[in-house]
Design brief:
Blueprint lengths: L34 E6 L4 E8 L3 E9 L1 H5 L6 H23 L8 E7 L3 H18 L3 E5 H7 L12 E6 L4 E8 L2 E7 L5 H11 L6 H10 L22 H13 L5 H26 L4 E5 L6 H14 L2 E3 L10 H13 L17
Parallel strand pairs: 1-4, 4-5, 6-9, 9-10
Antiparallel strand pairs: 1-2, 2-3, 6-7, 7-8
Helix pairs in contact: 2-3, 4-10, 5-6, 5-7, 5-8, 6-8, 7-8
The structure holds 5'-O-[(R)-(carboxyoxy)(hydroxy)phosphoryl]adenosine and zinc ion.
Length: 361
Amino acid sequence: MPKKTPSVSSWDEFGMNNLKSPIVETPCASSERFIILGIETSCDDTGVALVKNGEKILSNVVSSQIKIHSEYGGVVPELASRSHLENIYIVVDEALKQAKLLLKDIDGVAVTYGPGLVGSILIGIEAAKAIAYVHKKPLIGVNHLEGHIFSTLLEGRKPEFPFLSLIVSGGHTELVMVKGFGKYTIIGKTRDDAVGEAFDKVAKLLDLGYPGGPKVEKLAKISEKRIKFPEAVMKDGSFDFSFSGLKTAVLSCKNADKNIDSNDLCAGFQDAVIAALLNKTIAVAAKYKIKRVVLGGGVVANSTIRGEFIKRGKREGIEIFFPSMPLCTDNGAMIAVAGYFKFLKKEYSGYVLNADPGLSL
Ligand code: KG4
Ligand code: ZN
């Protein structure tokens, strides 16, 4: 039986001022297979992927800008958007080549529309619009955070709803109750720095380079005399986090003793971060009687964090889910997965889709 690819009934209806797409066919017969092109450009990675049925990665290409930004010790927004512009179609072509597909073979185009850097997001959105328009495919705007929440689905282990999601990245630290696709309640978040941002800032003050997370983790592993810092949490009974005080504590320690070992500072910092993340997450899970915790975001690439969550999860009888390391940091596959579920619900975006740098869940 031929596949019921959703098609645009009349292109004129899909006009610039039309928020709701006029695509009419229902795409969600369960036996069918759909391929979504996912585009992610919210920060400094140009990511494009092709994902089948929201679970099988056909290709996942990420062009990193680390070399460009490392000499500045952090992402320079203007350079990031220029680099996305230079690379986006090269990355799209490479993803198609690796998947052995053409744009006419895809069923929808999913793209991050926030949160993130406005100039960077716009490059992805405009590329997605052009592809969707030329090839008459539905355009699906995706919240970057939904990508991180559902990236674990690409590993074949599917947590049942409801689950608690801990998103820890360069821009976010959020504890989110996920009751279904699109059904989110934010339980806790950072009041200042995001976890990844704190890793990057500590790395910068220790002259370790950018991005800081992997460098801090590496030094922490070889520490012989880890320093004890206080746990990075709000002590007001809320489930919020605060990491800026911890970063200042690392700086004060360094200033007080110029010969202090960076390995020990990194280990102490990382221990305090892990204690905060673990204790708050487990406390929320206990309060809401949740037995599944899903981790997502670049900081989950940290093997010590992954290990500590697995250990504690076993002790508490909580199942811990997380994506493999390349799927923790920003990539197009996670956007294709989140986009796939919106595609099934026909939650298409019109061509007025715009960047929303402060988008929340
Ligand atoms: O999710 P992501 O790629 O981008 C954002 O959405 O922000 O996360 C990037 C962040 C950076 O702050 C980076 O330092 C951090 O993830 N990160 C790590 C590790 N690898 C990347 N943090 C701690 N340990 C790591 N191994
Ligand atoms: Zn991210």
